[in-house]
Amino acid sequence: MTDIGLSSPARLSTATRLSTATPGDYFALLKPRVMSLVVFTALVGMIVAPHAAHPLIDAVSVFAIALGAGASGALNQWWDADIDAVMSRTKNRPIPAGRITADQALAFGMVLSVGSVLLLGLSANWFAAFLLAFTIFYYVVVYSMWLKRRTVENIVIGGAAGALPPVVGWAAATGSIALLPVLLFAVIFFWTPPHFWALALLKSEDYMRAGVPMLPVVAGTAATRRRILAYAVLMLPVSLAPFALGLAGLAYGLVAGIGGALFVGLAALVFTRREGAAGRQACGRLFAFSILWLAALFAAIAAERLFA
């Protein structure tokens, strides 16, 4: 599919605006609400990894991963400034609102990217730093620049970027990769499409106006609801795999099983309640619950390791 987003001059024009940025605007470039869950999953990846914890090194490593996550958010907003400007959900972000210029956001994101990778390499190991650099590259270049405006599978393929943090956290602690972080990657990978498509159903007019080929815009809402339910069903056994394989305990298994079943139930409501306020409410509930469930799932496995 060709690029159906707004033309590059709309993005470049933001570079000429005078900046009225405050520290809060630069903090907003980091997408703190979105990236907080990303950083938490990376922290859990570090907690569950078999290593002799060093509080200072681990804290610096988590900080470096947080900087890398924030850098991804800043560079994503730099690239997407043109479509952010026409979407109600994003039009008040610092660049489209004119408080930060595109050039400033680009410089800020690049400095944070390089700094975060160097800091993780020096504090933990260079394998973890490579994974962090790859995560930033994947989110900014593969997802934001390539996939987002060109294919309806943008979230499916691009979701790998958001699924990598627990692998990065594990690698920061051990310098290697094992089965458990790969399974945690798979949980987030299968969680991402139904989570994001629920929001896309609520904001489909925004995406249509911006020319972003999200699934509801291209395939329609009925197909989107079917795929939400399909991914929710697939996600349930994937989330139970760490418990089934003896890599996680009963607390994790209960959250994965009960919470995953509720997730499927809410996805089924999205599938069946397609019209009006009831349909929007079903999407909103699934979106909100998905965040709580993923956070609870990772909190459960972290607690099992911390209090074992």
Give a quick summary of the entry:
This protein is mainly α and 308 residues long.
List keywords for this structure.
about 300 residues, mainly alpha, about 75% helix
Description:
With 308 residues, the chain is an all-alpha fold. Helix 4 runs antiparallel to helix 6. Helices cover 76% and strands 0% of the residues. The radius of gyration is 19 Å and the shape is flat. It has helices spanning 8-12, 23-29, 32-48, 55-79, 81-84, 102-123, 126-147, 154-163, 165-174, 179-202, 204-210, 215-218, 221-244, 250-272, 276-306. The protein is built from 15 helices and no strands.
Query: Which segments are poorly predicted (pLDDT under 50) over 5 or more consecutive residues?
Result: 1-17
Indicate the proportion of strand residues.
under 5%
Rg, Cα atoms, Å: 19 Å
Structural category? mainly alpha
